[in-house]
Design a protein that fits this description.
Arc Repressor Mutant, subunit A; alpha/beta; 14 helices; 3-stranded antiparallel sheet
Length: about 500
């Protein structure tokens, strides 16, 4: 298997990081067995045509992550992989209730009692890169000591803002470090923007359906929330213009790529038209982008789904990006890109909220970027999610009756189903839960007049096996309900 290792001398990525990443992958995928002796430093360096130090550095990184162990005078060996047992940790699933508050916390119990959870779009702990994080955390502590725990700049740790400016440049968004504001999660971003811009009764336009966490914030500011329906290629522009003719909102809150909950993305044409409308009507747009890195079938840095911010020549867009779905939600890390005219007001709102975001985690994330682990992190997540997504699409086509409608968004974590007439999501939710499957009822994503025939399914917290099994169970329930409905309908047929 070692023969598979190939280093690219022309890549900007350090050779030892390339070697470490490839060996790590081989070990984690069990392509190299536990206790196998890795090649000696000198031999491996000669074979790969690199310096001995490259091999030493790569082996050291693997050792720090406990993927290999060293025997004095003998060499470096692959460590046995420790399986994480289900009952070692408690996995708390947070579920959003009809009032959009986070209420119901279900503790995961034994294997038999385990619920197949399509309701949450939060990644599970097995996807978190704990070992590299631990190593970088120690590095930060050794390097910065107490400084990591002192008061930090409200705008955020400057080296991290520089790293983010480079990372976001790959998504074709140009942002200087002055325009970047670190925040403690995208939810805080929505909150401080609402605090900055909204007074009692101010109008806010949102997509219908939308992210309930945003609705809660706007409600808390007593804003006048107007919902504009979203179509498969983005918000309905005719209806949006109709609303704009009547009144001007303080801002539009939009998710142009892999929208939550629908998974829909705006067409390029719609993105361009929205920006034109913004100019025409002098609008501010808040673009919430949690998931655009998870566009499947393209490499890191390539993007079929441009952010509005990448096309925003006129500085009409405030961009929010969360690290929760692509790194670890518990770190509470996200950032804003802000046009200059709003710098001071938004900084003040951030300061009033929590003064600054945790300095230690900002420093660790910065090292993640600097030591070039970020690309691996995104690629690994994408690989996992893309497989799940493909399994999900196959299962939906195979097991659900054709009366259930959905589109396949090519990215993100969510799929949005439209149930056949006569089957409400409440009924499906109850029956599915009794069958060990948790779904997110579409009703929670509407501000007014919740639609009863929509379901959001997420692939964030389910394995490929669980997807097949869970969709099979859902399919059975829906088919049964459909045939019951048919019986009922028939009883009203005139006897001819
Ligand atoms: C669209 C959207 N915005 C914001 C958030 C909140 O993200 P964070 O964990 O960064 O606060 C979420 C979380 O699910 C989300 O889906």
């Amino acid at each position: 298997m070692i023969e598979r290792v190939q280093l690219d001398q022309s890549s900007s990525k350090h050779l030892y990081i390339q070697l470490y990443s490839q060996l790590k992958e081989l070990i984690e995928r069990r392509k190299i067995k536990s206790h196998t002796k890795l090649p000696s430093i000198r031999k491996f360096a000669k074979e790969l045509g690199v310096n001995n130090v490259t091999i030493v550095n790569a082996y050291n990184l693997l050792e720090e992550e406990e993927l290999v162990y060293k025997k004095v005078g003998s060499g470096t060996y692959v460590a046995p992989i420790v399986e994480l047992k289900d009952d070692i940790y408690l996995d708390e699933e947070v579920y959003i209730d009809e009032d959009t508050k986070f209420i119901e916390e279900k503790k995961r119990g034994s294997k038999e009692g385990k619920i197949i959870n399509f309701a949450t779009a939060a990644p599970t702990p097995d996807l978190f890169p704990i070992k590299p994080f631990k190593r970088l955390l120690n590095k930060v502590l050794d390097r910065d000591g107490g400084y990591a725990f002192g008061y930090q700049k409200s705008q955020g740790y400057s080296p991290l803002r520089k790293s983010i400016s480079q990372y976001i440049g790959k998504c074709q968004i140009e942002a200087s470090i002055d325009e970047i504001q670190i925040i403690s999660g995208a939810q805080q971003g929505i909150d401080i923007l609402a605090k900055t811009f909204l007074d009692y009764g101010d109008k806010v336009f949102v997509e219908r359906p939308t992210y309930p966490g945003a609705i809660s914030v706007f409600k808390s500011r007593h804003a006048d929330i107007r919902e504009v329906p979203i179509r498969k290629d983005g918000i309905d522009l005719d209806l949006l213009e109709e609303e704009l003719e009547k009144e001007k909102p303080k801002f539009l809150y939009l998710m142009p790529n892999f929208q939550n909950p629908t998974g829909y993305s705006y067409s390029q044409e719609k993105k361009e038209r929205i920006l034109k409308l913004a100019e025409e009507y002098d609008l501010l747009i808040i673009e919430d982008d949690c998931l655009s890195d998870l566009n499947y079938g393209v490499g890191y840095g390539e993007n079929k789904f441009l952010a509005l911010k990448a096309m925003d020549k006129d500085d009409r867009v405030i961009y929010i990006k969360s690290f929760s779905k692509i790194f670890m939600p518990g770190l509470r890390l996200a950032f804003l890109i802000i046009p200059e005219r709003y710098f001071d007001d938004i900084l003040l709102s951030k300061y009033m909220s929590d003064i600054f975001t945790d300095g230690l985690v900002q420093r660790v994330l910065d090292l993640y970027f600097r030591e070039e682990f970020w690309e691996d992190q995104i690629n690994k997540l994408k690989q996992t999610y893309q497989k799940r997504y493909e399994v999900m699409v196959v299962a939906l086509n195979k097991y659900l009756p054709q009366e259930v409608k959905f589109i396949t968004p090519q990215g993100g974590l969510n799929l949005w189903l439209e149930l056949p007439q006569g089957l409400t999501v409440k009924k499906l939710y109850d029956k599915a839960f009794a069958a060990g499957v948790n779904i997110a009822p579409g009703t929670v994503f509407y501000y007014t007049q919740p639609q009863e025939d929509k379901v959001r399914l997420s692939i964030a917290a389910v394995t490929e096996e669980e997807i097949k099994e869970g969709i099979k169970r859902l399919g059975k329930i829906i088919s049964k309900e459909l045939s019951n409905n048919k019986d009922w309908d028939n009883s009203w047929m005139p006897m001819v």
